[in-house]
Amino acid sequence: MAVVEELLRSESDGSISFGNHKLLQKAKVEDFKHAGDLLKVKTYNEITKLEKNGMFLYESVPGTSVRNFSETESGVEFVVEGDEDAQITVGLTDDREYEVYVADKSIGTMKTGLGGKLSLSVELQAAGEVCVKIVQV
């Protein structure tokens, strides 16, 4: 998988791709229109952050490149790439339980709190890219 050179782009399947974990300096794209929403991404090798309509949607430390990020009423799915293992936080629905899959294997169920955030660790250093799927139970 290649980094997202344009930092944020719409894909033909309705998903988005964003982030560039290879950048040494911070870069951002604001007011990107996608499916009626305004998106903002900030990214470089230390952090990648995505907001939708001013609300938190995704963050990784260190920075990652994300491909085919799609949201549904029941969760999110994406492919993530990075040079190091990453801590990923995703904005979901408040106070809900989700089944989390990494590389097509369930790592268990997790519950969001009042802020709707769910955090997970993804081993990227050896894998390169990993598929993540988070589905409401």
Any overview of this molecule?
With 137 residues, this protein is an all-beta fold. The protein has a single domain (8-136), classed as Chondroitinase Ac, Chain A, domain 3 (Sandwich). Helices cover 0% and strands 61% of the residues. It has strands at 8-10, 16-18, 27-34, 37-44, 47-52, 55-61, 65-72, 75-81, 86-91, 97-102, 105-111, 117-122, 129-136. The strands form two sheets. It has a seven-stranded antiparallel sheet, with no helix packed on it. The protein has a six-stranded antiparallel sheet with strand order 3-4-5-6-9-12, with no helix packed on it.
Structural class: mainly beta
Average pLDDT figure: 95
Give the quaternary arrangement of the chains. single chain
CATH class descriptor name? Mainly Beta
Please name the CATH topology.
Chondroitinase Ac, Chain A, domain 3
The low-confidence runs, each spanning 5 or more residues with pLDDT under 50, are none
Termini Cα gap: 30 Å
Shape: globular
Features:
single chain, 13 strands, Chondroitinase Ac, Chain A, domain 3, mainly beta, 137 residues
Topology, pairings included?
Blueprint: E1 8-10, E2 16-18, E3 27-34, E4 37-44, E5 47-52, E6 55-61, E7 65-72, E8 75-81, E9 86-91, E10 97-102, E11 105-111, E12 117-122, E13 129-136
Antiparallel strand pairs: 1-2, 2-7, 3-4, 4-5, 5-6, 6-9, 7-8, 8-13, 9-12, 10-11, 10-13
